[in-house]
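To fix ideas at the outset, we first show an illustrative case, written as a sequence plus integers encoding its fold:
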Amino acid sequence: MVNMISVNLTFDDGPHPEYTRQILDLLDDGNHKATFFCVGSLISKQIELAREIVDRGHSLGNHSFSHKSCDDISYRSLYSEYASTKSIIESITRQPCRILRPPYGDTNFALKILSRITGQRLVYWSNDPCDWESPITSEIIFSRIVPTLKANDTILLHDWVFDNPKSRDRTPTIEALKYLVAYMNNREIISQSINT
């Protein structure tokens, strides 16, 4: 019997009506699951898409309401950023939202306290191909993931890029995901949602 290894695919900054659905379709090939760290201001406009993400077996995580760095806002604003997005996600999933990823991975003492108070675990990544860079190609993204890919890696990709208009076209990420899914299927690597 072959022992399958698992990784965590994660997608930040969405959801996006075009790109997120393409990603969902690709993940279905091989029954891969992912975690989508959603921006509250976007998810509130894409409720049906967020429900589709969950209905297709994936999980939602909190990525703040307006994608601001925790170092740029007061504690009260920080709380509002994450509490409002948590509430939106919970209204969609009907389950507690227990994971958050701060934009840019920025963390400070206030955010650590907030995560404890609200019962949301901070989730980062171990494999970042910088798919948000511009210009970028699918081949570059794929080549940055695979050489260091190991069991339990958390791979950071984007189904939208909130702050960089030059990187809003997610086609390179989607093309790289096609290669990655085929690679994982061939090597019996499975992607799972982060346990929420």
User: Anything to note?
Assistant: The chain has one domain: 5-191. Helices lie at 19-28, 40-43, 47-55, 75-93, 109-118, 138-145, 171-186.
